[in-house]
Each structure stands twice: as C-alpha cells, then as structure tokens.
Amino acid sequence: MNWQIYLKSFKAYLQVEKSLPVNTILAYTRDVAKLMEYGGSQSNLTDPRSIKTSDLQQFIEVIAQLGLEASTQSRIISGIRSFYNFLLIENEIKVDPTELLEMPRIGRKLPDVLSVDEIDVMINAIDLSLPNGERNKAMIEMLYGCGLRVSELVNLKLSDLYFVENFIKVTGKGNKQRLVPIGNGAIAQVQRYISMIRIHQKVKKEAEDVIFLNNRGKGLTRAMIFSIVKTLAEKAGIRKTISPHTFRHSFATHLVENGADLRSVQEMLGHASITTTEIYTHIDREYLRKSILKYHPRQTMG
After folding, report:
1. To the nearest whole number, what is the mean pLDDT of the chain?
2. CA 25, CA 41: separation in Å to the nearest integer?
3. Residue 277: pLDDT above 70?
4. Which of 29, 94, 198, 226 is the most exposed place for a label (fewest CB within 10 A)?
C-alpha cells in the first residue's frame, strides 16, 4: 500500500471512529502529508510502515530548519503520532516509531490583555450616531462580556438568547454547545441594537436567525469583525496588538484576577482542557505579593 491509501484510511478513521472536528482532521492530514512529501524525497521511505524513529527525528530537524515555531512543530508531531497510532490499531505496524519522539520546548506566550479602563475607552469611542454604531457596541459588549471566540460571535442566533435567565447558548469548536452567563449591561445593548436597528433591516432568508448583520442583511464575516476591532482600537488610541480574541483573553484574565476559579472559567470559555485555561493565571507578581500580604493568615499574625 502507498502513502495515499493510508492517508485516505486515516482520514476516514478520524471522521468515523474519532469524530473529530473538520478543522482538526484537515490539520492532521496536512501534517501527515508533509511527512509523505519528505518520505517521497527519500528513496527508502516510500512506505509509511518502513519509517523508523531516526527517520522521524531527521524529518523534525528538516521542519525546524524551515523556521517553523515550536508550537507548529509540536502540532505536526501530534498529527503524525495520531497517524501511527492508527497504523498500530490497524495492525499495519508492530512498533510505534513516534513513541520516543520528543516535543520541542514551547515557551507559553502570554496574550495581550486590555485593562478595564482600556475596554471602556474603546467602547466609548464607538460613534452611536453612525448606522453600525449600536451593532458594533453590542458586539464588543458580547465579546468581552461573554468571552466569545470571533467565530462564535458571527454564528450567534436570536434563538440562542435566553435573556430572562441571563444566559446565551454558544456553539463552539467541534459544534460543542455551552451556556454562558451574560450581564445586564450586555443584554441591554444587544436588545437596543435588535429593537432599534436590526428590526428595520431587510434580512436575507439564510440570515433570519443571525443576530449581527451587515448592511446587506447578511451575517458578518470573521474578517469584518477583525477590521471593526482594529479600526476601533486605532480610534481609541490603544497601542497594543488588538484582535477580537483580545476581548476573550481580557474576559478570562479579569475573572481570574477577581477570584473566579479556573474550572468555572474553563466552562465559560469552552476549553476542553484545564491546562489551556491556566494561561490566564499570569497575574503580575506585584498583584500576588499584595494579595498574600493582605489575605494570607500568617502575614497578619504578630
């Protein structure tokens, strides 16, 4: 059997047996395709079953020399590990050559975070007299107030709003749904946009249940949200690197800094693993020092 046949079977395995999201399947198959391309350039690696750990280590050296970040290298290795685990399950190989592979060291990159004051400045910079002002304010309120991903925001439906209960239903990665609390301020702004602006728009049939619409009555794209946020940051004089995701980072960071437990934040963000949420514990040392001095019982005893 050649690489292509194995790759096709691997893709079916990820779809049917593992039920992975489409984007994950595409990423894994692309990673294996990179190894396949490398194997094709080596006369003795035309069959994935013939590859040894030493061959994979040489492949990793090659992709490292291309200047790929450690996080990208790690993702490629994860895809290849999944592929060889599949071959092991199918009894195509007896020994897993990825078992002894080492992941490159990844420095945990801390995301840019806006302060509460900076978020207020950005929201106050929105010109509500403009046609899309109320909409843009409602979107920022939801990005920060609910910690949404940009894809979750553009796909949010009117039928997902449970304002009486102070919740919204969010469809995240892998079509997993979660309930996220929403504050009264965000609720008021979304209702204002819907009742004052959206109700007067001519809505395309496919977007009848979509909350946030463009001027043509269609749903917004991710690129449009990025552009709106970038323009707003410039207008507000924010010098940090800003994207829609910055509001999600800020949402999580402010919750943790104010005492929310990581499990609750994990649920609200829709993280599959608590380790992903732990990045938001990057509270500065001075804040920690003051907290310990103020609250730790041993610090207040004579």
Report:
1. 83
2. 25
3. no
4. 94
Q: Does residue 55 share a domain with residue 136? A: no
CA distance 294 to 291: 5
What HEC string does the chain produce? CCHHHHHHHHHHHHHHCCCCCHHHHHHHHHHHHHHHHHHHCCCCCCCHHHCCHHHHHHHHHHHHHCCCCHHHHHHHHHHHHHHHHHHHHCCCCCCCCCCCCCCCCCCCCCCCCCCHHHHHHHHHCCCCCCCCHHHHHHHHHHHHHHCCCHHHHHCCEHHHEEHHHCEEEEECHHHCEEEEECCHHHHHHHHHHHHHCHHHCCCCHHHCCECCECCCCCECCHHHHHHHHHHHHHHHCCCCCCCHHHHHHHHHHHHHHCCCCHHHHHHHHCCCCHHHHHHHHCCCHHHHHHHHHHHCHHHCCC
Q: Which domain holds residue 177?
A: 118-239
The residues carrying an active-site annotation are 149, 173, 245, 248, 271, 280
Total count of domains within the chain: 2
pTM of the model: 0.59
Query: Facing residues of 180 across strands?
Result: 168
Query: What average pLDDT does the segment 145-171 reach?
Result: 93
Polymer length in residues for the chain: 302
